[in-house]
Amino acid sequence: MTNLPDTMFAVVQTHDGYSGTATGPTLETASDWLAEAEVPLPSPGPGQVLIQLRTASVNPSDIHFIKGEYGQPRVKGTAAGFEGCGDVVATGAGAEALQGQRVAFVAAGAGAWAEYVVAQAQMCIPLRPDISDEDGAAQIVNPLTAMAMVDIARDVGDAFVVSAATSQLGKLMCSLGRDLGLKPIALVRRADTVDTLISLGAAEVLVTGDPDAARQFADISANLKPRVFLDAVADQLSEQIFCAMPNGARWVCYGKLSSELPKLTQMGQLIFMSKQIEGFWLTRWMMETPPADQLRVVAEVQARFADGRWKTDISERLTLRDVVQGLADALKKSDGKVIITP
Ligand SMILES: NC(=O)c1ccc[n+]([C@@H]2O[C@H](COP(=O)([O-])OP(=O)(O)OC[C@H]3O[C@@H](n4cnc5c(N)ncnc54)[C@H](OP(=O)(O)O)[C@@H]3O)[C@@H](O)[C@H]2O)c1
Fold first, then answer.
1. 214: confidence class by pLDDT, cuts 50, 70, 90
2. Of 151, 161, 294, 298, which has the maximum CB count within 10 A?
3. Fold of the 7-138+312-341 domain
């Protein structure tokens, strides 16, 4: 490595392992989980690259993770943050082809909220010049998940249900569904977002706080017959929605935005109506999907961002040095991603 500093500024985790709680991706005070630190510059091993950060995004998975509530353990003293965009400034053996490229990346063991990040070369996607750094910061986790999950829905019918539809991922799935000639049924918390969801492509929008929401959904379900429920909330209303779906329906749980644990109330639906409850995790999709198929999906994702069919809505921008102080407040704003810059 030449012309690189020996140390870097990073927002690091202050806990190890798992917490055993399930409180959801909300923060009262970021300093309960994070601290500022000057740490040694990491060094890329075989198959890895060192990236100088341009932008990182804050996803719900980052918050689950720093609180010890995600599918992998924390390591105290290492940087937080999974996803971002930056320039490859050094490479390990076998990753030389990425030297000098601007890439979107996912840092497998976290580490994106730092001036420099090590990532596996396989988890880096060279970016087209017409993709902005801010779109580049949210180019992998949500867009690939949207493509993979709408594919699940497309295989089994015209209509599908999306909860937390105002999330970045929900919006991507509604517009993709519309573009593919499908009928997304969107569930939202805020009534003032209904028109936005319709304009993005939802065929129907239900406000979950409406006392009549479950009955309204039953009517929509009888009419549109959605077979797949792509659910990031997973609360009791989700269970009611699943119960009101037709024979063979699949409840695909991919997030846990609500801290409420739903109860199953109608086991006969699994037995007699061939319904299924399952999970989706992008990490598993990436391990199981052949590289050629992943490349096709990545090319389509970049094309959609480049021509404006998809965009990253941004609610707040923080520098790395603002994160510990400002992240909790920044996350209280709806309708967009918090973007971190060095
Ligand atoms: N399994 C996977 O591989 C995978 C991959 C990517 C993302 N995800 C999951 O997908 C979900 C969305 O991610 P994102 O990055 O698109 O999120 P995001 O843009 O940060 O948006 C989250 C939105 O969800 C809504 N929300 C929050 N808490 C809620 C609750 N208790 N009930 C209903 N709605 C709630 C809020 O919108 P309002 O204020 O408008 O209600 C919030 O703005 C997250 O759960 C994330 O973990 C999973």
1. very high
2. 161
3. Quinone Oxidoreductase; Chain A, domain 1 (3.90.180)
The DSSP secondary structure of 156-213, one letter per residue, reads: T-SEEEESSTTSHHHHHHHHHHHHTT-EEEEEES-GGGHHHHHHHT-SEEEETTSTTH
Task: Please choose, from the candidates 32, 34, 30, the residue with its C-alpha nearest in 3D space to the C-alpha of residue 13.
Answer: 34
- Does residue 312 line the site of ligand 1, with CB under 6 A? no
Interacting residues of 151 by C-beta distance below 8 A, sequence separation 6+? none
Give, for ligand 1, the residue of 27, 206, 257, 331 to mutate: max count of ligand atoms closer than 8 Å to Cβ: 257
Pocket test for ligand 1, best of 61, 150, 167, 196 (most atoms within 8 A of CB): 167
Cα(257)–Cα(130) distance, rounded to whole angstroms?
A: 33
What is the CB neighbour count within 10 angstroms for residue 192? 10
For residue 149, give both structure tokens: 């999950």
Residue 329 CA to ligand 1 centre (angstroms): 17
| Residue appearing with tokens 């199953």 | 264
Instruction: Report helix angle 168-179 to 141-154, nearest 10.
Output: 40
| Residue 117 near residue 137, CB atoms below 8 Å | no
- One-letter amino acid of 170: G
Give the H/E segment covering residue 241: helix 236-243
CA–CA dist 73, 65 (Å, integer): 8
Closest residue CA from atom 9 of ligand 1: 255
Q: Are strands 124-126 and 102-106 parallel, antiparallel or unpaired?
A: antiparallel
Q: What pLDDT is recorded for position 2?
A: 63
- Dump strand ranges (E) for 76-169: 83-91, 102-106, 116-120, 124-126, 159-162
At 218, is the secondary structure helix, strand, or coil? helix
The Cα 111–Cα 40 span in angstroms is 13
Q: CATH classification of 142-283 is 3.10.620.30, yes or no?
A: no
